[in-house]
Every structure is written in structure tokens, then in C-alpha cells.
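Pair request: fold both.
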Amino acid sequence: MKINRRGLLGGAAGLMALKATGARAQAPALPKAPVAINVIDVGGALALMQKAFEAYRQAKPELVSRITYVKAPAPELASKVKAQQDAGRIDIDMILTGSDGLAAGLEQNLWLKLLPTFGDRFAGLEENYEPAALNLHRAQGQGYGVVINYYPSGPLLEYAPERVKTVPTTAEELLAWAKANPKRFMYARPANSGPGRTFMMGLPYILGDKDPKDPVNGWDKTWAYLAELNPHIDYYPSGTTATMKEFGEGSRDIIVTTTGWDINPRALGIVPKEAKIATLKGFHWVSDAFFMVVPKGVSDDKLAVLLDLMGYLLKPESQAFAYDEGYLYPGPAVKNVSLSMAPKESQDVIREYGRPEYADLIANNPIELPLTPDKMVLAFRRWDEEIGSKRPK
């Protein structure tokens, strides 16, 4: 079930110096014998792309003997990688992460600089990206993370039409509704939830805050709003899955969602198909992506294969798998990947559970970048200290 899928020092001294400074260097030569690759997914990208990974393994047995996959919560990623690096033994070769895990690793200088260092292995990369994916690649990835999947994200409200007769249309109406219906509105902890962090980052646009890109000095209205909303929320789950289950079971009436978290749980039967979505006045999309990241300390043999693998995963035929069951709708990060290229089961799900209003919402509302990684870390920390810690659970 996709809902639960939510995983340099080798070489010559000259090459080491180039890697350390981020200068352009030629990629290491491909190994003469196949290597085993270990992938950790902390955001859910494997739900979209594992078939593409396996297609690469089958196509190039001379390079890859096996690929192992591990899933872990995003907040645990940085400490896990740092512990391995401090011990001088890195067992993780590639990381698939959202902007949360990417930001945490950048703060601690854990990731290998891939671009422009190995630009020769990413020919035409920027020209091939969808425009919004390219913006994320530049602003969020910063040469360390390579966007593999993209979506406009949210924040969207998902509600049960049989229980919510008057749907909030403004932030003020949502607050009033939450006060009148205690514990019936829910969102998850932003540091480990795409919808949760999208809601947090989308509010400054909705509320008209001074600087939506500055959570320290520009979010006075947002922090005040979240604090006022806080007493009327039962608790903040550690991930989005719980919000979907509780909404589907009927213990919550309105939750925060995104395009993918709207489509996929309904396709899986966790959320009723009849659930509806809404936006608040002043709505801007806050885009999001999954990134491919390589930790420092990976051997040159593995790095050479990883760079080749990344190029393969960014081909249109690999990107077509990203439609999946709507998990990160639409999903492909590169141009010219139509739904007709996706497997038939993906096409069937999108046609049945997708929403025609998404095309209009995407075309006619601004698509903003999320916070830069350093600002995102500050926002997560402040939310944890001032909002999340004030709830009993």
C-alpha cells in the first residue's frame, strides 16, 4: 500500500579536492565488476520509482548486482548518516528525500556536491526539467540534491461533505470552524509531513504576512494564527498517514492535504472516494519535490554507478512511472511525459480518482518555491518549540 511507503573520500587527492570545493570534475570511471547499491527512502519516492530502479538493475547487470531498499522517517535521516560518516563507514549509497531531509543534511554538511561537479553526467538536465521542477532543483537542491519527482503540492483542505455543511473559504473561517468543532480539524507535524509543512509554508501567503520566505522575521501573522488554532487540535501525528486514517474512520472532518495525498488514499480505499477538496482565499501553491542525494563517503565505484542511475531515472520512460496511483500527482519532473506513457493501472487510477479542477487550480494560481533549506530548518524548529510542544500528545 502506497500510504505506508512512506529510505569522498576515495580516489586521487586531486579529485578529492575538486569534490570538496564543488568545482567541475570528470565523473569516476564505471567499475569493472557490478556493485550492490543501498537506497534509503525517507519521503515516499520509492512508491513512485522503485519499478524504474529495478528496470535499471535488469538493464545493466554488469554495473549493479542488487539494489536494497530501506525506508525511514525523515527526522532520523541526518543523525543516521552522520553517525556512519563519523564511524568512517557509510552504508547508505543513495537517499531519496523530500525537502525536509535534504535541508537537515545540508545544515550538517552531509551531502556530496553533485553539480556542477559532475555536470558531464547530467547533460541537458536543466533544459529537460519542467519549469517549476527546475526552480526547485536550483533553489532547494543547490547542487546537492537532484530533483527526481515534482508536484505543485498544496496546501489543500480535504473534507467530508456529509459532515461539513459549511466549508471554510478563508483562514478566518477555518479558525472559527475549528473553534466550533474542537478536535475535528487535523494536520501532521511539518518536519515529517508533506501536507503539514505545505500548510505551514502556505499560510503566510493566505494571511498576507510580511515576508513568506522568512519564517523568523516575516511570519508574525502565521505564528499567531497557528498558536490560536493550537488549542482546538487534538494532537499532531508524526506523519501524514495517521491523518488520512483518522479522516477515513470519521474521527476528523477536515484535514490538510496535497494533490497526491488526496488522490492516492482515495484510490486505496483509506479515504472515501466522495471526499472533497477546497482552498482558502489567497491560496498559492507551495511546490514540493523528491530529491536524489548522495552522502559523503561513498566509494568512487558506487558513485560512478549512482550518477549513471540518476541519468536513467530522469529519462521520460522512467519518469512515466511517477504517475503511479496519484501519490505525488502529477509526479514527473521532466518535460514531455504524458499520462499515456504511464502503465495502464496508473492511467486508470488517475482517470477515476483524479479531479478535473486540478488543471484549473494549477494553471490559475501562483506556484511558489518552498522555503530554502536553511530557513526550513528554522521553521521546523520554531513550530516544534512554539506549536507542537504545547499539545499534550
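--- second member of the pair ---
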Amino acid sequence: MTDHPGLFPTFFLSGFECSTFHWKHQGRRDLVAETQHDTKLHEDYALLSGLGIAVVREGVPWPLVDHGGQVDLSRLDPILDALEKCRLTPIWDLCHYGYPDDLDPFTDAFTTRFADYAREVARYVSGRRDGPHFFTPVNEPTFYSFCGGEWGWAAPYGTTRDTRHRLRLALCRAAIAAVHAIREVVPDARMVNVDPLVYVVPPRDRPDLADEAREETFHDTFVAWDVLAGRLHPELGGSPEVLDIVGVNCYSFGQMEYREDGPHAALGPRDDRVVPLGDLLGEVWNRYGRPMIIAETSGLRDGRPAWLRDVMEECLAAVRKGIDLHGVCLFPAVDMPDWHTGEWLHNGICDLERHGDELRRAPYAPLVDELRRWQRLLNRVTRLDEDPNSDPVDLNDVTRAAHAMNFRSDRDWS
């Protein structure tokens, strides 16, 4: 078996909810502050180090550091210090559902400002730490376009499908410009382009909506990645090298029943219309042939261990069929609030428990145990050593495990 080094020092990754959207009826939100990740960086990163996780999705809050085009990145200093101390490699999210108040995403100025900002971030972080350097220019342009372009949840508060399509294209144009700007500074920078992996079916009593459901599954899901890859709108400068690493977000609510208005309805775990995750991963691999990661995945409450088990079995079934999977990101590392209600979702590696003004981290032991089990099965570290970046993951270990365990994709989530 020939050498197959991975992109990352560990197969398991994690990350922190870092949305900075301008939210309906509330104004600017900062989820890093709402979860107190900003004041508990060392504790949060030490948790990941102790779990054998060396890669973290971390956000740069564009609307909070870009003031009329003047970019002040000093708020990254404590993050960079904590990353260095805990020996973690970041994947920098540059636009996580938020942009500066003085910008209109449908203008050329938006693209230019975003590219300038991305270039400054690349210069700043590459001057503070050695590579490799990873960036997600725009997180989930497809979901962001629904959220801000059709459902009216966040700025720019669009409420039509046409606005959604225009917003997605604008976000992709900005992302492509950012990739080129980043590589002016860091030529070998790698991009992780993240979007949800979804499957949509018609309601049982509306077979007439089958074409719409199929269109969303097999076309709409891939539009942003297609633009970044240069398959659609090549005049924007996309290419396979711009798309680079495909990050797929996998949640149970990604399999849905079509609704003509508003968000679709999630399928239940025993719905006979559910399709195997491994098959969906294969669709992405066959379309692009690019390195892949599960960029986000998590279950809810006491279903978290079972969800991780199912995702891992499906991932290994897909690896056995040949997809080039470089990691699985347990997201988030600490709990996050429901954007609408503020209630804790209990979907993280750690739950959050309020003690006065403090949100204490409480690792969810059954999920940690399940993570440890998979680390052992894949011959992965369970705690970081002094130099976790000395050797990338040997993906042959993952491939051998996939063939040895011989998992087959199935519809069963339990």
C-alpha cells in the first residue's frame, strides 16, 4: 500500500460556533461571546488537546474587525497565543454569516473589501505561526443564502428565491476573490469550502413536488461548490484549486421533506425515505474528486454517541468505496444556543452549565467514550504529544480499518 498522508495532524477535528450575523429583531450577534469561548480560549483548547484533537475551526469575525475598510486584527492575538500553547492547527472561517454594516453584498465593493480583508488575515496569521494554513472563505454559502436571502432571518433580510440565488452567487464571487487574495500572501494555503449535504423528498401526499425535491437535492445543493470549482459561472475565476478541499456538513435534519414556503421539514430517523449518508458522500466524491472532510456533524442530547457511531460507520463504508476522506469534525466543541430561542441545544462535546455569570464546560462522557472508541479503532492518538504536527495522519490506517470492519451503508441512524 503506497503512502497516503492526510492533510491534518489528527483525523478528528472540532470547532466553535462563531456566527456574527445581523439577526432579525436583535441586531448584531456574536456567538463566540455568547458561549464565552472568547474568555475561555485556553480551557477550550486544552480540552481538545486532551481529547487528541489537533485541528479546530475558528472564526475571524469580519464585521467586528473591519471598520470601513480599516482592518484591526489585534483581537486574534489571544486566539493565536492559545493555539500555540495548546499546539492546535486552525481552519480560519472568514465569513460566518456576517459582514460589516456599511456593505451591500450585491455590490462590487463587497467583493473587493472581502478580498482585501482576507489578504490581511492571511498576512497576519501567517506572520504569527508556521503553516500549513487553512481557510474557509465563506461558510455555507448555500445555507447562508437561504437564511439571509429567502427566509429573512439575517441580513440582508431577503424573502424571495431570486434574492437567495443572487446572494449565493455574490457570496461565491467574494469567496473566489478571497482565495486568490489569500494565495497572493500564502501561495500554498489550503481552502476548506463548506456547505450542507442534504437530501430532499416530496411529501407523501404531494408526488407532484418530486421534481422540485430532486432539483434541490441534485442541483441546488451543488451550485456553490460548482461555482467555486469553475463548473458554473467560470467568468468568476473558480477552479478545482479554488474549491480545493470539500467540507460537507452532515446533520440529521439535512434529510428533509419539501415545503413550498419556508424551511423544509426534517425526516424522522425511521422514515423509509432516508438515504444512507455514505451514498451521499459518494455523490460529492464522484462529482468533484477532491479531498473531503466532514466539516460539521453532531447529534442532540443523549443521541450524540449513537449519531457519531452512525456517521463513522457511514464514513468508513464510503472510504471502503474509495472516497478520499481526511477527517471528521465534531462540531461544536462546546454547546451553542438555538439561534431563535436561545435555548442550549446540547449538541457539543461539552454541555454548558451556568454558574452565576460563568458558563462552565461539562464534557458529555458518553460522547467522549464513543470518540475514544473510534480513535482506538482507527489507530489514532487520544491525547496530543509535544509536537502533533510532526506527522500527518496516515490515511492508510483509516482505509485498513474501513476494509477490516467492512461496513455497508444503510438507512438506519440508530
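Observation on the second member. Residues 161-185 form the longest helix (25 residues).
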